[in-house]
Amino acid sequence: MKSLRTKAQGWVYFLYDHYFQEDANNDLTDFIQYFKIEGFANEPEVYIKTTNEGLEFGYIATRWDGYMVLLPPGQYKKHLLPWSSIKLMNKENQQERILELLMKTINTRKRQYRKCQFCGEKLATEHRIDDNICHSCASKYLGVVF
Ligand SMILES: [Zn+2]
């Protein structure tokens, strides 16, 4: 089985060949691509997108409003690689740096997951009431009303 890092690296190369080559002539104004953390919990997604400042790295997570109503998933920014520093690097260094920030983002997201003590499910922060109890089990076993 391919390691997560190998998969992430393959994805960075893919993005590079398809979008980031100087001669690719792509309009990167609204560029956003998602990478699924395969084989981990509910396979959450991280993203890379372009902004005016540079390449932004982040993850996608469920959002709730104050009354626990589900909102469309949100983007949570973790890192930025400024255009000014991208320009100073050669292709290999750029790919290396992009992979490094992508892995950091993936690991940040993974660290937000904990096993629920009741159902044993591995869930992200936004689906738990605390470190050890998920929302559904909090309703079911603790009578918490959302
Ligand atoms: Zn649970």
Walkthrough of the structure:
There is one protein chain. The chain has 146 residues and is an alpha+beta fold. It has two domains: 4-111; 114-146, no CATH class. Helices cover 36% and strands 28% of the residues. It contains four helices and six strands. It has helices at residues 4-20, 83-88, 91-111, 135-142, and strands at 32-36, 45-50, 54-64, 70-82, 113-115, 122-124. The strands form two sheets. A four-stranded antiparallel sheet has the order 1-2-3-4. Strand 5 (113-115) and strand 6 (122-124) form a beta hairpin. Helix 1 packs across helix 3. The longest helix is centred in the last third of the chain and has 21 residues, at 91-111. It is elongated and about 60 Å long. The model has no long low-confidence stretch (mean pLDDT 90). The protein binds zinc ion. The site of zinc ion (ZN) has 7 residues, from helix 4.
The structure class reads alpha+beta
Order of helices and strands: HEEEEHHEEH
Low-confidence stretches: none
Q: Report the span from N to C terminus.
A: 40 Å
Main beta-sheet annotation: 4 strands, antiparallel
Overall pLDDT, averaged?
90
Largest sheet, order of strands side by side? 1-2-3-4
Helix content percent band? 25-40%
- Evaluate the radius of gyration: 18 Å
Number of strands: 6
Shape: elongated
Number of separate structural domains? 2
Number of helices: 4
Ligands in the model, by name, code or SMILES, are: zinc ion
Note the beta-strand portion.
25-35%
